[in-house]
Design goal:
The complex is a heterotrimer of chains A (305), B (296) and C (357).
Chain A: E1 7-9, E2 15-17, H1 18-49, H2 68-75, H3 77-109, H4 115-127, H5 130-140, H6 147-154, H7 171-196, H8 200-208, H9 213-224, H10 226-242, H11 245-251, H12 262-272, H13 276-303
Antiparallel strand pairs in A: 1-2
Helix pairs in contact in A: 1-13, 2-13, 3-7, 3-10, 3-12, 4-7, 5-11, 7-10, 7-11, 10-13, 12-13
Chain B: H1 2-28, H2 32-35, H3 50-57, H4 86-117, H5 123-135, H6 138-151, H7 158-183, H8 186-194, H9 199-210, H10 212-228, H11 231-236, H12 245-253, H13 260-280, H14 282-293
Chain C: E1 4-12, E2 18-27, E3 32-36, H1 43-51, E4 58-63, E5 66-67, E6 78-81, H2 93-103, H3 108-121, H4 137-149, E7 155-159, H5 167-184, E8 187-192, H6 195-201, E9 204-209, E10 212-217, H7 219-224, H8 229-234, E11 241-247, E12 253-256, E13 259-262, E14 274-279, E15 292-303, E16 306-313, E17 316-323, E18 333-337, E19 344-347
The chains are: A mainly alpha (305), B mainly alpha (296), C alpha+beta (357).
Chain lengths: 305, 296, 357
């Protein structure tokens, strides 16, 4: 290959223009720099810390303990419970979000007066800060004067005000409800985008072929929405697993650990018990798990495309 | 027939989406006495502005309250704060959000253009790298960041918030931008280069003006993510001087002696800017996401 | 000024696809060269290499004596017109045309002058303040031309600029481009798959197939003396007719069954060889005196001033063009005098011409 050729042969094969390579590198540099600092570095650093027994209660004695922190974590019953809770929380949320988002997207896909208004209003839950969302629902769920109690009481579903958030059987689902309410708008938009890209001709052809509304839905709409669903599932799973804000505001992991999810577990370990060694280990585990989960999800769901 | 169905469906839709917020709004206009009625007054019968007044005039309201019960021992346990902090904290949130938006654009736009339009070694690697960084949960970032920042005494500095917020905003911004850039014709790129533009000039003079919807979407997403972010701000700010809005609002919730009416008013104030932005720019959000969102 | 020289240039893409292999070509200054071929033959790639939009992966590219391999596109002095025009949607027509000059740092008055001159000669002056989406296809095309014109570059590159226009406009624009070349006195490199365009516009045609040059020559050379069946088939409408057969024992005639025709040039060396005879549709003259080709008429298609006759000869289906005065009907037998000087002879296996190489 002539040395005078303008193309580089990179380490892995494909020849590219020298100028293009240089300019691409310059354009990418800020992003790479930023991400290295704020994403790669923390993960590596937390792994490093997790090998020590670092407690802020006695910051000057920091023994190197290899993987003892991890052992401690895996032997902790509470850890496994929080994993279980996180899993059920995530599954419920993702399923509910998909269904509601689909319903809403179908509605918004129709042409009718006031649709613009509806879709503008759709964005309200999305725009609200998580904190405000938490406070709002905390007020609604309030056992003394909350709207949920009031509504059910007025409709005669209950005969006296009940405890909601304080009831350990209901807590996780109430929090899930708040989470779902806030996440639905974005999911709806993603599904709506998918709906809009289905060519109208498909439906016309199906009608000529004699398919009724339900069959058109099942055989055309649903398959065409696969990519959107995949995107929603992956994104919302990631959001649900990592969610912290609502748990902090509404229940602080209680009552009696009923809403003690993984993210909360990490927080408690690190900032309440001040054990940064185990905290880092947990953080690192969480990072790894979500990473592989995302990877696996994209692989399996992506193949169906 | 269809119209009836649509009407009912729309009603259900609106109720689901707006009812909780409407209740929040309604409660914020009710005084202490009214808000404790059973069953609740759905529409305030004696509407009052006293909650909002309390916030704006910064009167000492009843008791002081803790923010975090097990606060960082370095500062001694608990930090009292008052209603007075809400407005300054909104200012902090604004500063941080604007800085994050600007940085996102500066960092993200060139990178997205390169990944969308230039064929170079390491292109797919960079794309995967960028996507995977978003997967890392915030809590996993907090622990190492906290230690690092604390060691360098940057704990109350808004700058540390700004930098860490980049971690959660840049990947998604670039994702939106790359999708949109890819949907713009390649031939414009060629024409510009033959016309004498370097890659950077092609970006600034041709593609950026054409990518306005995506840019607006990025600004919105980034602003909102930054404004609403809670966990990192909780960790990295100790004093009211540097706290952002979600922290101050959250602090109201953990005090049981505070009236919910007051909390609701604070909530309403916290909610207004982002909701306003979202509703005004609704069109851009959808079109910014549209180009390529489904392509994944 | 600019001679463009390719020396054994190759272009291979990252996925392994070799678009060009061992391409050697010299384009003289002020020439109008047309790169002609079907889709995927590498003609657009070649153009992109000249523009610097893609880089050579093997060999060398020179402008005059300067090696251009590593020079990026924005530092080369060429202008390009794209098939889809590639006008900047967010700029006015004026700004679209002026853009290249602005990027190269021309003064405002100079830009103004050049843009208005170009607009005037292309008759788009009234459109200067409009946006591309407000223009028709033909108008956009002129703007694209204007953008290239004002640059007064060393070479004009055109990538199928007329394909998106309707037939009448296309013919009118062809004439305009030809005139442009005469006025500008600059090198033009033009890519197309339309052989009629190539024949009308070119000083020289480069026929390409699958990344390899098949033949370079003037339009007459390419048309009258094609070097292989690909070139012969590609030019000419309707496409050239082929008859499989063989050469006679003395190498002076073509034979197939009852058909026997004299060759334009005797080939004693190739006696008895299996060959493919090429006859163009217009190379029969009912009033002529040449030797005749006999067959049965399978179809009669009037086309305005002429007719197309489908004739079956020794089992092969051929098409000829004759004047309207020939009165024949389907099913009749006919004998057509052939213009033997224009016959082409190709090797039956390789398709290479035995007459011209």
């Amino acid at each position: 290959m002539s040395i005078r050729a303008g193309a580089l042969r990179g380490m892995f094969g494909p020849p590219v223009s020298r100028y293009d390579q240089a300019s691409a590198m310059w354009l990418l540099a800020p992003m790479l720099g930023v991400l290295l600092v704020v994403a790669v570095f923390p993960v590596l650093y937390s792994f490093w810390i997790s090998l020590f027994d670092l407690r802020l209660t006695r910051p000057h004695r920091v023994p190197f303990v290899w993987f003892e922190n991890y052992q401690e974590i895996f032997q902790d019953e509470l850890f496994w419970q929080s994993v279980w809770r996180t899993t059920s929380f995530t599954l419920i949320c993702v399923a509910a979000i998909m269904v509601i988002a689909l319903a809403m997207a179908l509605l918004l896909n129709e042409e009718f007066r006031g649709r613009r208004f509806l879709s503008a209003m759709l964005l309200v839950p999305w725009a609200i800060p998580y904190v405000a969302n938490g406070l709002m629902w905390k007020w609604i769920y309030d056992s003394g004067y909350g709207a949920l109690n009031g509504l059910l009481f007025q409709l005669d579903f209950i005969d006296k005000y009940m405890v909601w958030l304080g009831d350990q059987h209901k807590t996780l689902w109430l929090i899930a409800n708040a989470f779902i309410w806030k996440e639905v708008p974005l999911a709806t938009i993603l599904v709506l985008v998918g709906l809009k890209s289905i060519p109208a001709d498909l439906y016309s052809a199906a009608r000529v072929d004699g398919a009724n509304t339900w069959r058109r839905f099942v055989h055309i709409t649903l398959p065409a929405l696969r990519p959107s669903f995949m995107l929603v599932v992956i994104y919302e799973t990631m959001m649900a697993i990592r969610h912290f804000d609502l748990f902090f505001i509404l229940t602080e992991g209680g009552p009696a650990e009923a809403s003690h999810v993984l993210a909360w577990h990490v927080y408690v370990e690190t900032f309440r018990k001040l054990s940064f060694g185990t905290g880092s280990a947990l953080a690192y585990i969480m990072a790894l798990v979500t990473f592989f989960l995302a990877f696996w999800l994209i692989r399996t769901l992506g193949k169906k495309l | 027939m269809r119209r009836i169905f649509l009407f009912c469906a729309s009603a259900v839709f609106l109720i689901y989406v707006l009812a909780p917020v409407a209740w929040l709004l309604s409660s914020s206009f009710q005084g202490e006495a009214e808000i404790t009625s059973r069953p609740p007054h759905w529409i305030p019968q004696q509407p009052t502005l006293e909650n909002f007044e309390a916030i704006f005039q910064a009167r000492e309201k009843k008791v002081t309250y803790e923010t975090r019960r097990a606060g960082d021992p370095a500062t001694g346990g608990y930090i009292p704060s008052t209603a007075r902090d809400l407005l300054p904290s909104m200012w902090n949130s604004l500063v941080v959000a604007v800085a994050v938006v600007i940085l996102n654009l500066v960092v993200g736009v060139p990178a997205a253009y390169a990944m969308a339009k230039i064929r170079f070694i390491g292109r797919s690697t960079s794309i995967y790298f960028m996507l995977t960084t978003r997967v890392i949960p915030d809590i996993a970032l907090v622990v190492p960041f906290f230690l690092f920042i604390r060691t360098f005494g940057l704990l109350d500095h808004l700058g540390s918030l700004i930098i860490t917020y980049l971690a959660i905003t840049v990947p998604f911004s670039i994702f939106i931008l790359v999708s949109y850039f890819e949907s713009l014709p390649d031939e414009l790129d060629k024409a510009a280069r033959v016309d004498g533009c370097s890659r950077l000039q092609t970006l600034t003079r041709v593609y950026v003006p054409l990518a306005m919807p995506a840019l607006v979407a990025v600004v919105l997403f980034t602003f909102l993510s930054s404004w609403n972010e809670f966990l990192l701000a909780l960790m990295f700010t100790q004093t009211p001087a540097s706290q952002t809005m979600p922290i101050v609002v959250a602090s109201f919730a953990s005090d049981f002696t505070i009236s919910f009416a007051f909390i609701n008013a604070a909530g309403v104030l916290a909610v207004i800017p982002p909701v306003l932005m979202a509703v005004i720019f609704e069109r851009y959000i959808v079109s910014g996401l549209t180009a390529g969102a489904v392509k994944g | 000024m600019a001679t463009i020289r390719f020396e054994s240039v190759g272009k291979t893409y990252p996925n392994g696809f070799a678009a060009l292999e061992n391409l050697s070509l010299e384009i003289a200054d002020r020439e109008f060269v047309v790169l002609l071929g079907p889709s995927g033959c590498g003609k657009s790639t070649t153009l992109n290499l000249i523009a610097g939009l893609e880089d050579v992966t093997a060999g060398s590219l020179y402008f005059d004596a300067t090696l251009m391999n590593v020079v990026p596109a924005h530092k080369r002095d060429v202008a390009m017109v794209f098939q889809s025009y590639a006008l900047y949607p967010h700029k006015s027509v004026y700004e679209n045309i002026a853009f290249g000059l602005r990027m190269r740092g021309f003064a405002g008055e100079e830009i103004e002058r050049r843009v208005r001159d170009a607009a005037r000669s292309l008759e788009i002056e009234p459109l200067l303040e409009r946006r591309p989406h407000q223009l028709s296809g033909g108008q956009r095309q002129r703007v694209a031309l204007g953008r290239a014109l004002v640059r007064q570059p060393q070479a004009f590159l055109m990538d199928e600029p007329l394909s998106n226009l309707d037939a009448a406009l296309r013919i009118a624009m062809r004439a305009e481009i030809k005139k442009l070349h005469q006025t500008m006195r600059t090198t033009f490199v033009y890519v197309t798959h339309d052989q009629a365009e190539a024949l009308t516009l070119a000083d020289r045609i480069v026929v390409m197939k699958e990344g390899v040059i098949q033949q370079i020559g003037t339009p007459e050379e390419i048309y009258d003396r094609p070097k292989n069946t690909f070139v012969a088939s590609f030019l000419g409408n309707p496409p050239i007719n082929y008859l499989e057969g063989s050469l006679s024992q003395d190498g002076r005639r073509f034979v197939r069954g009852a058909v026997s025709l004299p060759l334009p040039i005797p080939l004693p060396v190739q006696a008895g060889r299996p060959v493919r005879l090429g006859i163009r549709a217009e190379d029969v003259d009912p009033k002529g005196t040449g030797e005749q080709l006999g067959g049965r008429i399978t179809s009669v298609l009037p086309v305005g001033s002429d007719q197309f006759l489908g004739v079956e000869v020794e089992g092969a289906a051929l098409f000829f063009r004759v004047g309207r005065e020939v009165r024949v009907h389907e099913g009749e037998n006919i004998s057509l005098p052939v213009n033997a000087n224009r016959l082409q002879v190709f090797d039956a296996a390789s398709g290479a011409s035995l007459l011209w190489q």
